[in-house]
Design goal:
alpha+beta, 9-stranded antiparallel β-sheet, 8-stranded antiparallel β-sheet, 43% strand
Length: 520
């Protein structure tokens, strides 16, 4: 049995047997600060008019450091609400300029922002920062050396200049800062955790957990626990073709052997021994509910009105047997029972006097057959996690065939030996050994497609992590980002990150599974 992770144990303690979504602190940084950083990048160097003072304008010249380089801690405030407390102080700089001639600068206005704090909330199934921010702000106005000369040259009064400087430095900082923070990305949970329906009310928690068992490194996580049962959308299957081999079947005489060849189960997963960047905690009962659905039984009917004729009815059904979390092999197991029953009435043409009369009856069934699916967690396209089904074991018991003949008519068909040959050649070999297995094969394939499921998609995170390098050169061989001189840029994330490692932890009653990036 694999040992559950420290994070798994802590999330389980908070979950109340409900589904929970888990985000590393860096995931929140990516989500909330990418839009903030982009807004500064786009606004830097741009000129903004000053209402009521058409001659003057404001130009944003710098934000240092950029929000993408901010650092913060997840904490709980006094009332238990999760907060982001930024440990990075930053400075925003504006120039007061002549609107018609931006090179003419009068003064520099500087915001020093410290101790920035924001609450985290879930509103309309979106993870957001609170609308009101708390921070310490100190503003300064620094005159350029030729300020007086520019005022005289362009006929501007001290009053006009002071009014604008005072407004930007001391009256409007809150409005200006909050306008930038309004661009913070909101994370819609349904865009990430695709198959879950009924997202409504959530509780938020902050936990610290070991990065790896047996190590001292601690990571911070935001745990988003549903207050209600989140079930899988019944339409959430992704319909990946299983690609079963054609089954082969042999029936002989009064008994049968059924040998169905299936592709081997190949475990291609690569599970990381670190916590996931984003993860989903799923209790067994929720998984059990999703994978308990089976298709209705198939029905097959055929008839023939030849000299020896028949009409045949066959039913086959997959019946729910069990569901388990395999903690040793790190997968899910669905157990189904396969039941086949049928009946065929034989008739024979007894001529004009008697017409078509009953010749006998064939009954057949299989005693005990089983079908096991392995549900495997697989990463693909570097940002998506799917549950993929494979047939692990298919056991079909020998089907029993019972034949009862009305002997007084048997001579019309050439005797019992000839009729037995007809049963083997026409009914058993053609229908039971060919038509019915094809129908069952289609049934099994359809069931497998229902089990295939796209669990979540981190494409937005992947793009957000890489956005800071859009203007740089990416070396596909080393994965490094290079400057204009071809040298690696060493300022934090120097590699392009992809979410292609599966972080997995399981117990008999729950699974915590997520995606981590290729840098661990």
């Amino acid at each position: 049995m694999t040992v559950p992770t420290d994070l798994h144990n802590k999330v389980e303690a908070l979950s109340n047997d409900k589904v929970a979504f888990v985000f590393q602190a860096v995931a929140l940084k990516t989500t909330f600060l990418n839009g903030f950083s982009n807004s500064f990048k786009m606004a830097t160097g741009k000129i903004f008019p000053v209402l009521g003072f058409d001659t003057l304008a404001i130009q944003l010249t710098d934000c240092s450091p950029l929000p993408e380089d901010f650092d913060f801690d997840l904490q709980l405030d006094a009332d238990g609400t999760p907060i982001i407390k930024f440990s990075t102080d930053f400075q925003i700089t504006f120039d007061l300029i002549l609107a018609a001639t931006p090179a003419v600068k009068f003064s520099q206005i500087v915001y020093d922002v410290k101790n920035l704090v924001s609450k985290i909330a879930v509103k309309n199934a979106e993870l957001v920062l609170s609308d009101s921010l708390v921070y310490d702000l100190h503003s300064d106005v620094n005159d350029y050396a030729d300020k007086e000369l520019h005022k005289t040259t362009h006929g501007l009064s001290d009053k006009d200049i002071l009014t604008v400087e005072a407004s930007i430095a001391y009256v409007l900082p809150t409005k200006i800062l909050e306008s930038f923070f309004a661009s913070l990305a909101k994370l819609k949970l349904k865009d990430i955790f695709l198959p879950f329906s009924g997202m409504a009310d959530f509780d938020l928690h902050v936990v610290n957990a070991l990065r790896r068992l047996g190590e001292a490194d601690i990571e911070q996580f935001l745990v988003v626990v549903s207050q209600v049962d989140l079930l899988f959308d019944p339409q959430s299957g992704c319909g990946i073709d299983l690609g079963l081999n054609n089954p082969t079947i042999n029936f002989w005489g009064m008994g049968s052997n059924w040998d169905i060849q299936t592709p081997p189960v190949v475990f291609t997963r690569k599970y990381a021994d670190v916590n996931g960047f984003v993860s989903a905690y799923m209790p067994k009962r929720i998984l059990d509910e999703r994978f308990s659905k089976v298709l209705p039984g198939i029905s097959y009917y055929d008839n023939d009105n030849g000299f020896i004729g028949y009409d045949i009815d066959v039913t086959a059904s997959l019946t729910r047997v069990g569901f388990a979390i395999d903690t040793q092999r790190m997968c899910l197991i669905v157990n189904l029972g396969l039941f086949i029953r049928g009946n065929a009435n034989l008739t024979i043409d007894a001529g004009d006097c008697f017409g078509r009369v009953d010749l006998g009856n064939i009954r057949f069934y299989n005693r005990s057959s089983s079908l096991d699916y392995v549900l495997d967690f697989v990463a693909f396209e570097s940002s998506k996690l799917v549950i993929r089904s494979s047939i692990e074991k298919l056991e079909i018991s020998g089907s029993e065939v019972h034949v009862s003949l009305a002997s007084k008519w048997a001579h019309l068909g050439g005797g019992e030996a000839a009729i037995a040959g007809f049963i083997v050649d026409q009914v058993i070999s053609r229908i039971l050994a060919h038509n019915i297995p094809i129908e069952i094969r289609h049934k099994i394939e359809e069931q497998a497609k229902i089990y295939n499921l796209k669990l979540f998609d981190l494409e937005k995170f992947e793009k957000a992590i890489n956005v800071r390098f859009d203007s740089q050169v990416y070396d596909e061989v080393t994965g490094q980002v290079l400057d204009k001189n071809g040298q690696p840029i060493d300022h934090g994330n120097v590699y392009v990150r992809q979410f292609n490692n599966i972080a997995y932890s399981s117990k008999d009653n729950s699974v915590l599974v997520g995606l981590s990036n290729n840098l661990g």
